[in-house]
Automatic annotation (TrEMBL):
The lineage of its organism: Eukaryota, Viridiplantae, Streptophyta, Embryophyta, Tracheophyta. InterPro entries: Mpo1-like. The keyword Transferase does not apply. The keyword Transmembrane applies. It comes from the Eukaryota. Keywords: Membrane, Transmembrane, Transmembrane helix. Coiled coil: none annotated. The chain crosses the membrane at residues 27-57, 77-97. Pfam families: Mpo1-like. This is DUF962 domain-containing protein.
Amino acid sequence: MNYRNLEEFWAFYVSQHSKPLTRRWHFMGTLSGILCFLFAAISGWWALVLAAPLLAYGMAWYSHFFVEGNPPATFGYPFWSLLCDFRMFGLMLTGSMDREIKRLGKRPVLQVF
């Protein structure tokens, strides 16, 4: 499916993260990645920059394969998926993700492939 803008993709992205445990794995992965970057910048231990995407994507992909049961949206839309992951992280951090899910309403679960 082709999405005309990020907001259209966002609705799809949220539908692919329907289970709270999937969103929690994503949150922990994104947080781990951010902390790796911050620690690398503070400590000068730049090898940690390589660990950041491994942790972030590893946790997110685990959640898709073993919790949600769908392919990661990253496979079809890598840049938009990254932006939406940060958006979901921010909404979860502020406690607004449940409200966003309700705002979007029930959407059909579409597959990337």
